[in-house]
Every structure is written in C-alpha cells, then in structure tokens.
Fold this sequence. Notes:
The complex is a heterodimer of chains A (about 300) and B (about 150).
Chain A: H1 2-21, E1 47-56, E2 64-76, E3 79-90, E4 95-106, E5 116-127, H2 149-152, E6 156-170, E7 173-184, E8 191-201, E9 218-230, E10 241-250, E11 255-264, E12 272-282, H3 285-294
Antiparallel strand pairs in A: 1-2, 1-12, 2-3, 3-4, 4-5, 5-6, 6-7, 7-8, 8-9, 9-10, 10-11, 11-12
Chain B: H1 3-20, H2 28-37, H3 44-47, H4 59-70, H5 72-75, H6 91-94, H7 98-107, H8 122-135, H9 143-146
Amino acid sequence: MILGRRLCIYLTVVLAWFSLVGVRDLRGQENPYMVAYDHNLEEPGNLEVEYFSTFGTQRGGNNFHSFWTEFEYGATAWWTTEFYLDSQTTFGDSTVFTGFRWENRIRPLKNEHWINPVLYMEFENVNGADKILKEIEGHDVESDFLAPNAEARKEKNHEMELKLILSSNYKGWNFTENTLAVKNLDNSPWEFGYALGVSRPLGLKGSSQKCNFCLQHFIAGVEMYGGLGDRYSFGLHDTSHYLAPGLAWNLPSGWTLRVEPTFGLNQNSHQFMLRWGISYEISGFGQKMADLFRGKP
Amino acid sequence: MKTSTLAGIAALLFAGLGIFGVVPGRTETTERESVYAELAKVPEKFKNKPNPLANDRDAAAAGKVLFEEHCEDCHGAGAAGGRKAPSLRAREVQEATPGTLFWILSNGVVRKKMPVWSKLPEPERWQLVSYIKSLGPREAATNKAEKP
C-alpha cells in the first residue's frame, strides 16, 4: 500500500514536469542497457525524465524493490549531465530515500570513429541502504544487502566514480565496453568493475508510415557486468557478476519502455532481478527554461 | 541531507543548465555561413559515396517520418529551418552530395550543437538523406522566416 502510494507520487511528479514545460513528440533511440553506457549522448537542450525500477531477490533476507528517477540533460552535443534520486523498499522492512547522484558524460572526440571514447564522472551521496545496483564494483556481494534499512542507512557514502566508455556502432549493432573505478572519499581503496553490452534494432530500415509496432522501434540487447576487486585485491574472487538480456521499445510519441530480466552468474550475486524503466524525452527543455528566465512568453 | 536542500540543488542545477545551453551566439548571418561551411569540411572520400537507397521509392517517405521524429524539432517543419538549426532546403545543402549529408549525419557537428546520429542504423540515415534531397531548394525558407 505504502509502496503503491510512493510510486504514484513519483509518477505524478514526473508527469507534472511534462505539463509544466509543454512537450513535443520526439522519438528517442534508447538502447536497452540499464547498467552499461554507450557513446550516444542526449541531444543538446533536451531533457529526458526516466523512472527505473528493480525487483531483486535476496537470499537470507527480504526481497527488495529499488527505484530511481533520472533527469538527463544534453548540455551540449558533447556533454550530457544527469541527476538521480534513489529510493528502495525492502519487503517486510521499510521504504527509504537512499541518496542522490550527479553524473557527467563527455565525448572528447568530435567525429565518429570505430571506437568512440566517452569520459564519465559521477559523484554519489548515498547511504548504505542504497540498492539500485546501477553499477557493481569491487567486492560487492549479495550478503552486503542483508542489513535492515534502519541500520544500513546510518552508513554514509560519498563516492567519486570514473568510467571509460568505449563504444562502437557498426551495421546497426552497438558494442560497448565500460571500465569503472570508484573511490569512496572516506579513505577507502579504489574499487573496480566492468560492464559489457551489445544491442541491435530488430529492424534497420524506417517505415514510410508512422507506427508503434514497427520492428525498428524495438532494440534488443544483452549486457554483462560485475566487480573486479579493489586496489589491494584485484581480480574476480569474492565478486558478483550478472547477465541481463533486455529489450527497449522506442515509441514515436517520445516514450521509451525498457525491460531487463537479470540473472546472477555466481554464488555472490543476487539470483534474479527484474528491471524495467519508462522514460520520456522533453524536446527543447533548455530553450524553454531560458525563455522563462528571460521573461519570454 | 534535508529534502528541501536537495530540491534546491536540483532546481539550481537545471535552471543553470537551461541558461547555459542557450547562450546567444554570433549573428544569424555569421552562424548560417559558419554552419553551412561544415559541408565543405567533409573528407573527399566520403563525398562521392552513393546513396544505396537512391532507387528505393519508399526511402524519401520513410525519411520524412524519421525526420519528423528526430530532426524536425531543431530544423523546423519541412526542414525549412528552426530556432536551433538551419534550413536544409538551402542551396548549400541541396547541392551537397548524398555522401556529404550522410557523413554530417553520422559524425554530427558537435562543437556547433549538431548531435551525432550514428545511433540510427545506416539505412535509416540514408533514408533521411533521400528525404532531404527530395525537398529541393527553397531559399526563402530561412531561419528567420520560421521564427515566431
């Protein structure tokens, strides 16, 4: 009941954004990845509002539902910035707000290449109850999530996360490889992780008629991600890994729906998670904000 | 951290970015010349690349749908120019080779706010080229004419 009410509040806030700024149809072309990033940035001036949700199983404890909202803004054609608000519900426990993140992605090369690097920097201010599992790093394992919310949320994490994203588009396919390094600013060692992804639209040609169910609107893919230990114990021991096939449906009306069943690959991983997300791209958001502050109608 | 503080940070962040993203630049004429000059910078070996969908009768129609979904917001209805991007009916664009337009679509002009469209599969990019080339020149349709 509480969960349902909170979800309604979340979605109402998101929809309120749309009615405030006014919207135009604009089809996104989003990949199904939930964790991996490719080199495609947000179009300049556009704001994409995204809601994501993860139902996760927990051995030895209660299953959970984590959810987060992203505001992704194309500051320029080579710089995308994103703000996250994270929350989670642990069944039989409580629902808690777990913190915020601010990420930036910068494309250093101006043209398209065989391999396109993107530099990623993120600051996280989250507490120990955070369960969005947006990245797996270091020696993250399933048993880390056993602590009750009241206890876990006392732990404060201020982290800086750096990623090198290497991504290619070739004949409709996207291949991406992310390596990440995370530093807890409270004097913890660097931790490392990876994410790999491959995806492709089901149709490569556009249709001459507007349609919701044409194959080119569906992008299927699979991603794999996990931890690589830390500075003092680099490697695969005591790390968790996941494999996740996914599907994105980019509707011509500007909405994108994503679903991704996720399977743990070893005993340290959550055995199963179901992730899904819904997003909407608001075209010309930057221009509207500028007009608002300049007093234009 | 208090919820009100968080809300304040978020509001400031997006308000600031909104202004940052649309700082007024040079005059329209200079901007226009500068934007179209990008067409001349396309590497020679790509300029002569033929459109593999040149004989596809549906290509322009499909390109029109794609244009309305991805490009119209910046380039305006019918590609006649908008607030954020120039007319694609200009002589400079219409006289450019299909390979030139394809290269610009694939690589963008990221320093001048034109995003990279390599995320669209190649056939869709060629469909867009077919549509743009099907429009023909209409010099009168400049950015200025489209402004509210």
